[in-house]
Design a protein that fits this description.
By secondary structure, this protein is an alpha/beta fold. It has twelve helices and twelve strands. Bound molecules: iron/sulfur cluster.
Length: 345
Amino acid sequence: MKKPNLTGMTLEQMEQLFESIGQPKYRAAQLFNWIYKKRIAKLDDMTNFSKQLRQQLSESATIGLVRLAKQVSASDNQTTKFLFTLEDNLHVESVFMIEAKRKTVCLSTQVGCPLGCSFCATGKMGFQRNLTAGEIVDQLLSIQHILNVDVTNVVIMGMGEPFLNYDEVIKACDLISHDTGIAIGKRKITISTSGIIPGIRRFADEGQRYKLAISLNAADDQIRDDMMPINKKYPLNELINAAKYYAAKSRHRLTFEYVMIRGVNDSTRDSQKLARLLKGLKCKLNIIPYNSIDEKNTIPSEDQIDDFIRPFLNMNVVVSVRRSKGSDIQAACGQLYYDYHEPKS
Ligand code: SF4
């Protein structure tokens, strides 16, 4: 029988494990601390456990779920991209970014993605499986271990749609924010969805305190249908209603991501439509000029971006433009995987 993995276990699960091997429950808090706070890579590193206890533990459980396959840093050293191998030899990507004092990791939640957004490399590879909470958390633990850094912020924005793997994603966020472990504050963790309405409503109903971002990308159903086929199932009006429902319940400002693609969704007409759609909603609009994975789409000019954000200046909308970070290492979601699995001839 396959041994359970300690990475991804909650404190309660660790207590059960200790009980099952005839050890006192208080050991669980120590183990939790070793795994999530001290980031040990092997059970033998737990120096306050006797050799006998370590032996007993290693007979009943294992540690670590992802292995580094590839690591690439951008020329400015502010962004590092990781490709990790899972136990079944599938791969996922994660990114580490430094911006002033903020050290952010972007984590994946699925291997591939079933939603096939037109602008996304992950969408082109199809869906293989959901990640477990342990595999999500271990991306972060591994990055902290490899780079010897303390991550301050987390964005769940890598490969996959987090709300199609809701339970494991929330479990992972609960582990990441647990105050005796990694201890990253809930408001420093952002979950970004492509607009899975039942997920947004559940997130609101459960009173989750993690930040919510919705990848919007168009203010027009026709354009959004083309960019994000999930829009056919959850069209814009219903999505905005769900966003309003979340905003009313949580009282938190939610973020809309807008990947801006030249000639597709970057006109003044698009921005006026978007302004009408977001009217009355206390939110943040994050414009992301497109980080191309092919030659077809090119990045919008600074003037286009300035024109686009003008209608929001007098609204209750905080606008930010996320300049492409790490484009020389293909830092956008799915691009390293793409490169690794489809070497250029
Ligand atoms: S953008 Fe997100 S939801 Fe869309 S295909 Fe890529 S990973 Fe999936």
